[in-house]
Amino acid sequence: MAQKNNPSEILEINNRQKLYLRYFTAILIDLTVLNLFDEYWDLVEINSFTISLLTAVILQILLFITIKIEHRIGDFFKSKSGALAKIGHFFSAWAVLFGSKLVILEALNIAFGDEVLFKGPFHGIVAFIVVIIVMLVAEGIVTKITKLLSS
């Protein structure tokens, strides 16, 4: 006879499960944010739910790569000392984080063409950056709530 789990027991999850849950949750958050912007803001147009889901997946993959690149560059500058290294770290981080948005926007354009459109100032870059910022804020809020619930 199987024993029932006590709900007060702490469930231990391994690192692969944590990674899966992190990206699964992030994709769902991004999907929600994308679809809310599509519905309520004229500067964002996504032709279907499927396209918005694929967009959310691509965004998470490309943001993951961006963060890895930024951390590698950051590690390079952290190994150096002096004001020049700090200035180099700041400007390279800014360049990677901003420049990556242009690359991501172009990747979405290549992948989906007119099925995903960010319109407005600077060929939609402003709208795209607003959407990305809202995604990151939403992910941060969910992470903070999850940590509060675990204590």
Report strand order across the widest sheet.
Answer: 1-2
Largest sheet: 2 strands, antiparallel
- Helices and strands, in order, run as HEHHEH
Helix content: over 70%
CA-to-CA gap between the ends? Answer: 33 Å
- Total count of domains: 1
Proportion of residues in extended strands: under 5%
Low-confidence stretches: none
Average pLDDT, all residues: 88
Enumerate how many helices there are, as a single number.
4
Radius of gyration: 19 Å
Structural class: mainly alpha
Number of E-type strands = 2
Shape: flat
Summarize the entry for a quick read.
The chain is mainly α and 151 residues long. It has four helices and two strands, in the order H-E-H-H-E-H. The protein has one domain.
Describe the structure in your own words.
The protein has 151 residues and is mostly helical. It has one domain (21-145). Helix content is 74%, strand content 4%. The chain contains four helices and two strands, in the order H-E-H-H-E-H. The chain has helices at residues 15-40, 49-78, 83-112, 125-150; strands spanning 44-46, 116-118. A two-stranded antiparallel ribbon has the order 1-2. It is flat. The mean pLDDT is 88.
